UniProtKB/TrEMBL annotation:
Family indicated by similarity: In the C-terminal section; belongs to the trehalose phosphatase family.
Name this protein carries in UniProt: Bifunctional alpha,alpha-trehalose-phosphate synthase (UDP-forming)/trehalose-phosphatase
Length: 485
């Protein structure tokens, strides 16, 4: 079926992200199927943009080659940007996910530095910037997202000084000692400072960014305000940095948990697992930042030492395929699958797994049923911008049952202080937290969930977006409209 074409209007609010909210998948018969894109950015922003009149989203459609024509989906105009095979290799898999991703996540694996990756990062960023500038109304707002597009704010400003520009980083911003490794660090900072407002998940990310600006560029920083010096006829300008922890569409989650079909699906899932006494759940993109190896190590040891009986307790590990052509991800998949196979070989009762491992995507209804079926959720990230899975679990438990074990290295830990907080590098601590979660009395679960739910339900993604956009609006008047590029 043909997608409706995009409206011909210019838009007051344009979101730019590496990915569109939907990915194009080519079916064996050559037809195109659109599926929800992976990751927390899309989960959060898709629900924000669905509620905006005349919303526009500029991004990649997930396949190499020529971009599809602009089209409408869920009330949004989507403007696909093309990435060819070289862009995917050098901009997406290379500089974004082989350099920036590991550097910004505490060098859990070694970042790779290649000069040709940088050149393609620049040219791809320029393509996103031009596409966004071309569909934005005079005096409009462009909201740029995430580490793949850090040069876009500056590129838009040089073409469209009339628009307000916001940037939000969904992943951590590293301490200056690590950021300094980046060969093109000053260009990246100047790219970000093209925005009027630069937002981060955690307070420490904001402070890291400001410290880098001060130490590496030598710009004046007064609390949250950076003064970018003027050059020639260009006046100095102020850029504000701020902390905006992202969240979920909690109303949408509540609509799902209220649905009797999903409640039945949760019961059915437990039954399909053999009606164990306890179901423990992990949900992650298959990414080395998520601490899946640490989780499996702890789980294997608990089974080995007899602390957990696999006939009573099942671990369900959902691992969404991710960045499968990048070496570190290939290696991770091999290791995880080998370990799951070993643990199942050693411990699974006949006809049932000790670990039910699912390497694929599920729809929101199935994800919610999984959260509702889980007695414990393990979030063991070694570093994570936010981790929406932690918040999704909390939002999915109106019955106030269940225990969240949460890594202190996930951004969510700054807000979800009532969870069982762990250092995932300490395998003994991880094991005792899992056991404590499994034996937690119902009254204690209720107390924990009540406190966690207050935090999540009072700070949903709509209020996050409003807070960011209100602050952007308050930042100052842009220059008068000029001709679009
Ligand atoms: P990241 O952005 O690094 O992927 P988050 O935890 O913030 O991490 O967000 C992950 C999002 O992807 C969540 O909304 C989660 O529900 C979703 N997700 C993870 N695994 C799957 C899966 N197998 N199927 C569908 N959605 C998934
Ligand atoms: O912030 C999380 C995030 O990295 C997004 O930027 C990204 O779109 C998503 O996870 C999934 O990763 P990818 O787009 O590389 O599949």
């Amino acid at each position: 079926q043909e997608a409706p074409v995009a409206s011909q209007e210019l838009h007051d609010l344009v979101v730019v992200a590496n990915r569109l909210p939907v990915d194009a998948k080519t079916l064996p018969d050559g037809a195109t199927e659109w599926v929800t894109s992976p990751g927390g950015l899309v989960t959060a922003m898709e629900s924000v943009m669905r509620n905006v009149d005349s919303a526009a989203w500029v991004g990649w459609a997930g396949s190499p080659g020529e971009a599809p024509e602009p089209f409408r989906a869920d009330g949004m105009d989507l403007y696909p940007v093309s990435l060819d095979a070289t862009d995917i290799e050098k901009y997406y898999e290379g500089f974004s996910n082989g350099t920036l991703w590991p550097l910004y996540h505490d060098v859990i694996v070694d970042p790779a530095y290649h000069r040709t990756w940088w050149d393609t990062y620049v040219s791809a960023n320029r393509r996103f910037a031009k596409a966004a500038a071309a569909v934005t109304a005079p005096g409009g707002t462009i909201w740029v997202h995430d580490y793949q597009l850090q040069l876009v704010p500056e590129m838009i400003r040089s073409e469209r000084p009339d628009v307000r520009i916001g940037f939000f980083n969904h992943i951590p911003f590293p301490p200056v000692e690590l950021f300094s490794q980046l060969p093109k660090r000053n260009q990246v900072l100047r790219g970000l400072l093209g925005a009027d407002l630069v937002g981060f998940q955690r307070e420490s990310d904001t402070l890291n960014f400001l410290a880098s600006v001060r130490h590496l560029l030598g710009y004046q920083v007064d609390q949250r305000t950076v003064t970018v010096p003027g050059i020639g006829a260009v006046e100095p300008r102020d850029v504000i940095a701020g902390t905006f922890p992202i969240s979920l569409d909690t109303q949408a989650v509540t609509a799902l948990t209220d649905d009797p079909e999903i409640q039945e699906r949760a019961r059915q899932l437990r039954h399909d697992l053999g009606d164990p006494e306890k179901v423990v759940l992990g949900v992650d993109r298959l990414d080395y930042t998520k601490g899946i190896r640490h989780r499996l190590k702890a789980w294997g040891e608990l089974l080995n030492d007899g602390s957990i009986d696999p006939r009573e307790t099942v671990l369900v590990q959902v691992a969404t395929p991710s960045r499968e052509r990048v070496d570190a991800y290939r290696q991770l998949r091999d290791e995880v699958e080998l370990t799951v196979g070993r643990i199942n070989g050693d411990h699974a009762p006949i006809g049932r797994p000790a670990i039910s491992y699912l390497h694929r995507s599920f729809n929101r209804r199935d994800m919610t049923a999984l959260y509702m079926a889980a007695d414990v959720v393990l979030v063991t990230a070694l570093r994570d911008g936010m981790n929406l899975v932690a918040k999704e679990y909390v939002a999915s438990r109106p019955d106030l049952r269940g225990v969240l074990v949460l890594s202190e290295f996930a951004g969510a830990a700054d807000e979800l202080r009532a969870a069982l907080l762990v250092n995932p590098h300490d395998i003994d601590e991880l094991k005792s937290a899992a056991l404590r979660a499994l034996s937690m009395p119902e009254e204690e679960q209720e107390e924990m969930m009540t406190s966690l739910r207050r935090q999540v339900l009072d700070h949903d993604v709509q209020s996050w977006a409003k807070h960011f956009l209100d602050e952007l609006e308050a930042v100052g008047e842009p220059a008068p409209p000029s001709a679009p590029i």
